[in-house]
Amino acid sequence: MSKFIPFTEEEIYQAAHTEIKSILDAKGEKYERSGTEWLWEANHSVKFRGHVFYDHNTGDKGTTIDFLCTFFNMRFQDAICTLNCRDYNGIEFERSTLKKDRKRRPFALPGKSRNMKRVYAYLMQERRIDSEVISFFVHNRSLYESANTHNAVFVGYDSTGKAKAAFQKGTLTEKPYRGDVDGSDKEYFFNYHGGSERLYVFEAPIDMLSFISLHKEKGWPKHNYLALGCTDLPALLRFLSEYPSIHQSSFVPGQ
Question: What is the pLDDT of residues 145-162, one digit of tens each?
Fold first, then answer.
């Protein structure tokens, strides 16, 4: 198990605000102008501006940290370390001055399907998640199947039980999809609070469910679990501040 490496908010900010062009230059990738944005030559569905990108095929979006995690198979910690080095392959990274849009759409959970057949089939057959683990999170309202798209919806709650964020993962292997529900507060990503002093930290909700499935015989519900959504360390900082009894945090690589 990998030990979680803590980063300061400034380190995360600097990494996330690295110009994506700098990354592509360092890796020898080409891009071209597309209006006010740039188009990645290797993947024409991906457009970026400053430190943010959007993939029109999959719906993936985010900062430069997400870009490395999504397209270059980097772990969250490796991406932070890479982006905060002085240069990469002899090229010095530039920091983005693009200002973030402060407007946020109202958050609303997607409608629920009448059953969970598609989600259970996908998680059990494709991702090998234990059925009892799936049912546990279904019963505590953290996981359900959306009505229109039949995506798996992973819900993040605050300490009062109010839904604050949700992440959707497609259940069709031939049509992969993943993305946050509009208006999600990423400080409240998919999580479970069991009350012990130990917190297990993951990049994605399915990584979290896979780990629990492998260790469910060891009294897993007494511990705490949090999925970051790749780059969202504020979710970890918020969780630790909300539950000060936690004294041990471990980052668990994807299964």
Answer: 999 899 999 999 988 889
Global pTM? 0.66
Taking only Cα atoms into account, the Rg of the chain, rounded to an integer number of angstroms, comes to 19
Q: Show the tokens assigned to 10.
A: 């400034």
- The 3 state secondary structure assigned to 100-152 is CCCCCCCCCCCCECCCCHHHHHHHHHHCCCCHHHHHHHHHCCCEEEECCCCCE
Three-state helix/strand/coil letters over 81-104: HHHCCCEECCEECCECCCCCCCCC
- pLDDT tens, position by position, 169-183: 989 877 778 788 888
Residue with tokens 């946050």: 180
Find all residues with CB under 8 Å of 206, minimum gap 6, and list them. 123, 127, 129, 169
Question: Is-contact 202 226, C-beta < 8 A?
Answer: yes
Cβ neighbours for 160, distance < 8 A, ≥ 6 positions apart: none
Strand, coil or helix: 227? strand
Amino acid (1-letter code) at residue 50: G
Nearest-angstrom CA–CA distance, 64 and 164:
24
| Amino acid, res. 11 | E
Cα distance between residue 235 and residue 228, in whole Å: 6
Q: Are 145 and 115 in contact (CB under 8 A)?
A: yes
Report the residue count for the chain.
Answer: 255
The residue assigned the tokens 């569905």 is 45
Amino acid code (one letter) for 199? L
Q: Tokens in use for 196?
A: 């012990």
CA nearest 109: which of 176, 188, 172, 55? Answer: 188
